[in-house]
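Structure tokens please, single chain.
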Amino acid sequence: MRRRTFLKTTLHAAAAVAATHVAFVQKVRSQTPAGIRLGFDTYSLRAWKWKAIQFIDYAANLKLDSIQLSSLDDFESLDPSYLQKVKDHASAAGIVLEGGIGCICDSTKSWNAKEGTPVAYLLKGIGVAKAVGATSMRCFMGSSADRLGPAPIESHIENTVKALQAVRSRALDAGVKIAVENHSGDMQAGELKALIEEAGKDYTAACLDTGNPMWVAEDPMTTLEVLGPYTVTTHIRDSILFEHPRGAAAQWVALGEGTIDFRRFAARFRELCPNSTMQLENITGRPPRVISYLEPEFWKAFPKANAAGFARFVALAKSGRPLMTTMVVEDEGRQPPEYEAALREQQRVDLERGFAYAKKTLGVGVRWKA
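Here you go.
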């Protein structure tokens, strides 16, 4: 009798432990992100001249999760009824939309005066983002040209912060995070981090670009380590980086075909910004660009550069080799129709090669696994 009671008690205890374990596992699973969403920035297919609905259909056909509509030109109009149509179409297709505008600093060379003022432009972008159901809106400050202009880069950062702070309440009311990109050599990661913290982390964040660190002599892994905790959206792009007589040279390539260890990058990405989308921004078809860090003139643009960070970049360059595969390379100016057709198709092919690598090698994306 005692033995039977003991066994019964033991079984009940074991069942209780098992139930507790199951409940714990279910709780953990409910709190764990389903996975990093995979998508693309619409600039990747710039030569196709599509609009929002076409981008959504393309993404749905490839079983992607998201799209960054990085320009207001991606919409046929900004009429509320049309924007509602875009929102509904994306919802029906299961595609998460992110918003985007361009330069928001009127003291930089990238500023487009037709936008009126940075504040007006930001408010316009926030309104569009909210209308299509986006919770983030990408924008940028300037480019590498602003690092050697008449005003120091710090003054452009200050002007950008002022514009951002002027729209804080509207961004918070709309539920839209303003994601500032490290764009075209305008800022190193530490500078963008300082900008976000000064503006306010409650409504500003980072759009982490992995191709642009090359122009500021920064290893993209360094960029991730610094900006990862601030990142809500991305421009994921691979690069070939190799030594050059003037320092190093870099060329953008399809994801998985460059010098960056994206397996290691993706693992760290999951740790630092698990709720961010991974938006591929494919920009192939451009020639290598020299980063002339062996010349004194180069350092005039980076008087406060971190030596340890630069050493990491040099090590990455030493590990790389020039591109040895085929690529259609565009020249400046208008191309013959035959070249334009080839460059257009290359954008699609290279982007889809990147999707395949992201899915099969990096395990990124949600819908394709279902």
